[in-house]
Design a protein that fits this description.
single chain; 86 residues; mainly alpha
Length: 86
Amino acid sequence: MFPATRDGAADLRPPLARLVSVYGDVNDRVVAYHAAQSVGRGVDERANDLATTFADALDQQRQVLDDGSIDRLIERLEAIQRAHRR
């Protein structure tokens, strides 16, 4: 990311960074679930963990959409882009 873009949107990134992070957690749980399937142990526990983590991700996604985080970031990035047009 260009410095002007990075710095100009820094205050708007945390909710979106949390969303990316929680979906990373979901991915980790998917990998663990498939590993449990491969060895034939702990599948139910991994499935429950995956379901819980995915529900958390959906909650975070809903929060980001409801609080307008994405819209504010888009507006800010568009303003930065307009300010740096050649």
